[in-house]
Structures are given as structure tokens and as C-alpha cells.
Amino acid sequence: MKTSFQLKKTFRPLLLGTALLSASAFADVAYISNEKDNSLSLIDLKTLEVRQTIEVGQRPRGIIFSKDYTKLYICASDDDTVQIMDVATGTIIDTLPSGEDPEQFSLAPNDRHLYIANEDDALVTVVDTKDSTVLAQIDVGVEPEGMAVSPTGKIAVNTSETTSMLHWIDTETYELYDNTQVDQRPRHVEFNKDGSLLWASSEIGGTVVVIDTSNREILKKLNFEIKGIHPDRIQPVGVKLTDDGKYAFVALGPANHVAVVDAKTYEVVDYLLVGRRVWHMEFNSDQTILLSTNGISGDVSVIDVDKMKVIKSIKVGRYPWGVAVLPEGKGIPAQAER
């Protein structure tokens, strides 16, 4: 375990647009990281229109809100830092030490400890967001990417793409206590609501596994088949689960589809055609719609969860990557409350 680290700060608080619309009293707002535009697109989820674009650091990828929704954390990968945006003003107010090339991260339930995957350093960096200190740097496999902390906050899981492993980390000791071999190039991990199951995608392997977190045994391996699409193009990346435990949605990368999986039977019930190179996804606050970022087509697909139908495509910046949703009424600027 490494503990030394040099803080690197960059500030890019430039606002693109004439009005400050970082948050709304009237609708959920989706924040989309545009990897090649160094920006965020903000989408009003009632009008389904882009309402604002904000310039951020270089190559933004993973994004996540603080638990109180007052801050947005941004992996500015090519700046080797995590930026902190004030949600009320839409400006970058600080940075966190992150290790080199931060890609994805997960915030512990205590709203304080941020677990960051450092792709170039084969490390997971744990940062205290309150005082901007590095608590630990944990050696993992080659090219770490996916990152998740369990709902209890006791377990963190990281994926290493080249090693094709999941790494299980004790969040009290910051020790790696187990590894799970999966198929080639695992990209993303997602706990179910109570933390009893972990879903993990393997991009090149073309599979998703469901793991019992109590013993770390693989319960099920899912395969995907779409008529007219070569198996090599079916590359699972993002995974999202409904809170009621009914469905899992799997982004299939260059297959340009989202798979809908019955989360009880593990059967694929549908494939939804979305934009090109679908990557990550997020629900709105009541889980009635699901958003997918489509990198090559530069848009976001809006999926009606009840109808299992894509209802709109929204053009954003170049290579949209991550997505996070600000619920209605959260992070409201003072002027919007009056």
C-alpha cells in the first residue's frame, strides 16, 4: 500500500452560456461528461433539452454527486485530478488528489471517502473529500476502471481490465482481501440495492456475471445475442439495476443496444436500439426513465422504463461518457428558490 502523493490542482471554471442554470427547482437535471469536448452538458429531464454547457477539466469521464447534491465530483483524467463543482453556481471550486488518470470512482455512504480507479498506475486511491487528504493507495491489477462501494460501506470492489479480475477491498483496513477472475476486460461493477449481489460486466468477454457478495461466488453468467450483429461487437460496459429488483439494464457498447434483463430469472427479455457505442447509464430520480451515453454518435438516448422504449435522442458534446442525475429541488441556487 502506498500513501505518498503530490496534489495537483487545475481550475477551469468557465461557464458556456448566458444564464446560470446549474440546477432547477422544476425538474431533474442530467449531467453528461463529454470526454473529447472537456465539458458537461446539462439536460432538463422534463423538456428533454440541453439547457446549459459547462467547461471543465481535460477528458472528463466519471462523474458523481455528493450525497447532499451540493457538489459534483468530476474525473478530469488528463489533468490527473478530481475536480469539485459547486452545483449551485456551476463553477469548479476545488480539486482533490486523485492519482494519475482517474477514470471511475465511487463515493462511500458516509459522503466522505471517495474510491478512485487510477487506470495508468494500477492503483485505487482513497481520498477524504472533507480535508482533501489521501487515506490510502491500494495496489490492484493492471488498468483498473470500474469502482463500486457497497450500500453498507464495508466493501469496495474494483475491476482491472488487463488482469480480468475483480478486487475486493475492506474499507476499514484498506486491504485487498480477495480477487474474482472474470472474463476479459471487466469494465463496470454495480451492487443491487441491499448489497447482496454484485453485477460485473466484461467488455471483450461479452458477458456479465452476478456474484453473491457474502461468499464472492459467481451465481450466474449472462451471454447476449442480437440478430444481425457479430458477437465480437457485443461488448457489455455499464450496468444499472432498478431499486425494486425487477430489471437490470446492460449497455452493449458498439452493438448499439441496451439489453433488458429480468433480474430474478437472469433472462434477457429485450434489446433496445440506442446510439452508437453506448457506454454508461443512469436513471432519473423516480426511475421512470433511463439515460444512456452514446460516445460515437455524440448523443444521449432516453428510455421509457415502463414501456421499454427509446423515446428520444438528445445531441450533446463529443464522446459523452458519464452521466449523473440531480433530483428535482436539490442543489437549487438561491435566486431559483425565490
UniProtKB/TrEMBL annotation:
SUPFAM superfamilies: Nitrous oxide reductase, N-terminal domain. It comes from the Bacteria. It holds the Pfam family Cytochrom_D1. Keywords: Signal. Coiled coil: none annotated. The keyword Repeat does not apply. Residues 1-27 form the signal peptide. This is YVTN family beta-propeller repeat protein. It comes from Oceanospirillum sediminis.
